[in-house]
UniProtKB/TrEMBL annotation:
InterPro entries, per the entry: AB_hydrolase_1, AB_hydrolase_fold, Carboxylesterase_BioH
TM stretches of this protein: 239-256, 277-295, 307-327, 339-359, 371-389, 401-420, 426-446, 458-479
Native source species: Paracraurococcus ruber
Name the UniProt record assigns to this protein: AB hydrolase-1 domain-containing protein
Record bears the keyword rRNA-binding: no
Amino acid sequence: MLAPLQGLSVTQMPVGEIPATLYRPAAGGPAPVVVIAHGFAGSRRMMEPFATTLAQAGFIAVTFDFPGHGGNPTPLAGGLSDDAAAAGVLMAALGRVVEAARPLGDGRFALLGHSMAGDIVTRWAIAHPGAEATVGLSLFAKGATPDLPRNLLVIVGAWEPEILQAEARRLVGMAAPGGVVEENVTYGDPATGRARRLVLADGVEHIGVIYARESLEAARAWLNAAFGRSAAGLVDARGPWIGVLLGGLVLLAWPLSRLLPRVEPLAQGGGLPWRRFWVVALLPAVLTPLVLRVVPTHALPLLLGDYLAAHCALYGVLTAALLWRLGAPRPRWPGRPGGAALAAAALAGFAILGIGLAIDRFALAFVPAPHRAWLVPVLLCGTLPWFAADEWAARGPGAARLAYPATKALFLLSLVGAVALDPPRLFFLVIIVPVMLVFLLVFGLLSRWAFRATGSPWPAAAANALALAWAIAATFPVVP
């Protein structure tokens, strides 16, 4: 995974309070600059595959953290309630980075953005026609015309929603005869600035499109054509290797879990059979989005993170209340409190220091910046009730078969239901549902192995709740 960095000079180049990273060939001369922007809840680390691939081809690439994201301490004004204010802040930050980066090259520059940033780089390129080319991944582009932005490449994952694919065809159709668009066909001449092209990256969704080799090669070829270049070089192939690394770490947890101390001589848990358990599983999934539709959830300066924490907290309270109402065995203090605390600390340490640091190094920012650290214990107050109630409900002698995956599937469906009830405010939660699915699959395995070793649901509940609070604090945008 380190091969794409060979032969490159990678340096930090903060633009005021905006963290930014510069990638360029170690022995290269003047070249066009490509400013690369991340999407909602992303960071510059997430966009590194494009930076290294383009720098290997001789470009000068710059990634950065938008306000409210990653390590940028400036809150994202406007949030989702004021699109004009938020877009203005994001475009201003992009403009500052372009202004700082452009003199580092030969004077020519291009823009590349994913998701939220696809719209931002497109808007900026329309307002500042000096950009020679724009690459938009999984974007909605307001204000685009047949002439602007110049030389637009649109890349969408083949597994992404039809609404994004339709938007991609609309944008490229402005240059296609009759508006009929075929994949991988260039319409117009890059020399005139009116070229457009659609690429559907096979087998990937909204996040995977960033790591797809097809996306990286298409962006490189497009920018080469726009700038009259032909250099190639290594393509950042970390995508599959990230999966191998994380899969290996998860599998390593299986033998390590056997070292956890036994907390209970007999396994503990609610142990409800399906004839009673389905009520505990289903009602919170239905009621939580309905209640939160009318209850304010803007308690934290964390865009959508506050809602997700509130969703977890209410979900957990409702689950616990139903367990009590149905007469499930009452939760009790662990038989060996010290062993439970040790097991929880070991699980949390493995999740955050093992899996988390690997994610932070190769995928996205997972270590909260200093100005975000205080959010972790606050968010834990929301995530802990859900994991604690859910672990108790799904574990124990006589527990319904497949109870654990059933509650996780219903939780995700509950989030989708919340989005359906309030799309303007919660739409971006749809983006994290696939990520949440992976999170719950991975930490579900850790929970299963921990429960078998300890006999108690509490260590996994505490560790998983902390890991989710940590991830939300590190990634969701900070707002005023």
